[in-house]
Amino acid sequence: MASRKTPDATRRSERSRVAILTAARELIAEVGYAKLSIEAIAARAGVGKQTIYRWWSSKGAVVFDSLLALSEGADGEGIALPDTGDIEADLKTVLRATVAEFADPEFEAPIRALNTEIINDAELAAIYREKMAAPVEEAKKERLRSAQRAGQLAADADLDLFLEVLYAPLAQRWLLRSGPLDDAFADALVDAALRAFRPE
Amino acid sequence: MASRKTPDATRRSERSRVAILTAARELIAEVGYAKLSIEAIAARAGVGKQTIYRWWSSKGAVVFDSLLALSEGADGEGIALPDTGDIEADLKTVLRATVAEFADPEFEAPIRALNTEIINDAELAAIYREKMAAPVEEAKKERLRSAQRAGQLAADADLDLFLEVLYAPLAQRWLLRSGPLDDAFADALVDAALRAFRPE
Question: In the UniProt record, does the keyword ATP-binding occur (chains A, B) (predicted)?
Fold first, then answer.
C-alpha cells in the first residue's frame, strides 16, 4: 500500500509500533494475559488507545504480533538445529535448551498467554501454525532427514508424529505443571522417540 | 460440619446444587468459558447469585465442580481399562474412544474450558491432578502393569512417561487444532508408544 506519510511521520509510526509491541510483551510477563488491557499497553507505550486500534483489532492480535517480533527466525530464516552427526546428542541439546527456556518466567509467561489464546481461537491457531510453528517444525524435520540419511532413524518414519511424540509431552508438563521439567525428562523423551522410530 | 437444616431444606439445597452444576456445564458448552458469567448460571439454575457464592468462590470453582460431577469415577471407582490380553488392541480401543469424545462438542467444550483454567492457575492444576487425573492415570497404569506381566511391555518401562508419550500428542492436536484427530492417529500413537517401550 502506498503511503503519503513524510519520512518523519513514518519514523514516528515505527517508533510507536515498536513501543506498543514491547509494552505488550513486558506487561504479559508482569500481569498475565487475562489482566492485560489495551489501556495499560497504551499507557506503557506512551501512545493513545486509538493508535493501537488503528493497527490491531484486539488484545489478542497485539499480543500475537509482539510474540512474533520476539521469535527470531519466524520468517524461516536463521533457524537450524545443530548437526554434529549424532542425532541423539543433538536432540538432547535442543530439548534441554527448550526446558531451560520454559524455566525462564520472562520467556514462558508470554508463550503461556499465547497458548491460552490459541486454545480458544481456531483462527489464531491457524495463523500461529503457519507463521510461527511451521518454519520451526520444518527446520527440525530437516535435521531428522539428515538422521534418516545417516541411518539413525527409520527411513519411513513419520516425521510429524516423531516431533509430536518428542515435544508434546514436554509442552504438556509445562502447560499443566504435571511433573518436573528437567534435563532428565528431556533426555528420556529423546531416548523414547528414537526407540520408537529406530531403523529396523 | 454439623448441619442444622431440616430435611426439607437439605433437599432444597441439594436440588439447587445440582441445578447450578448442570447450568454451568450446559452454558460452557453453549457460550464458552470466557463469556460464562455467574449471573447466567444463576438465571439458568433458577437461584440467586448469592446462593452460588455461598458454595463457590469463583466462576472457575463452579466450572471445576461441574466437570468433576460429570467425570464418572473421579473418585477412582469404576474406572478400568479393557484387558483382553492384547495390549495393542486394548489401547487402540481406548484411544479411539478418546478421539471420539474430543469430536463431540458437548464433551470437548467444557474440557477445553477447564484446560484453559488449569494452564493459568497452578492451584487449580494441582487440584485437577489429584482429583481427576490421578485416579484415571492409576487405572491406565494398572492395565500397563498387566501388559508388563504378559511380556508385552518392557518390565522396566517408565509408565508415567509411557502415558505421556501416548496421550500428550493427542491432547496437543486437540488443544491446538494442529492436525487431524482420527482413528489413524490414535493407532499410530499406540504403535509408536509400544515400539518405544517394547521388551528387549
Answer: no
Determine whether the interchain pair A133/B178 forms a contact, defined as Cβ–Cβ distance below 8 Å.
Answer: yes
Q: Does residue B1 belong to any structural domain of this protein?
A: no
**Which DSSP symbol is given to A71?**
S
CATH of the domain at B58: 1.10.10.60
| Residue range of the domain that includes B141 | 87-196
**Which residues of chain A neighbour B163 with C-beta distances below 8 Å?**
none
**Best A102, A119, A156, A158 residue to mutate vs chain B (most B CBs within 10 Å):** A119
Whether pLDDT at A116 is above 80 = yes
Spatial distance between the Cα atoms of B25 and A58, rounded to a whole number of angstroms: 28
Question: Amino acid identity, residue A125?
Answer: A
The DSSP line for B39-102 is HHHHHHHTS-HHHHHHH-SSHHHHHHHHHHHHSTTTTSTT-----SS-HHHHHHHHHHHHHHHH
Residue B77 placed within a domain? no
Distances (CA, A) of A112 to A91, A125, B95: 23, 14, 27
Tens of pLDDT, residues B159-197: 999 999 999 999 999 999 999 999 999 999 999 999 999
Is residue A125 within 8 A of residue A118, CB to CB? The reply is: yes
**Within-domain flag for A82:** no
Q: Mean of the pLDDT values across residues A152-157?
A: 97
* Contact between chains at B160 and A171 (C-beta distance less than 8 A): no
In a domain, B2, yes or no: no
Residues of chain A contacting B188 with CB distance shorter than 8 Å: 158, 161
**Number of compact structural domains in chain A:** 2
B32, B133, B165: residue with CB nearest A165: B165
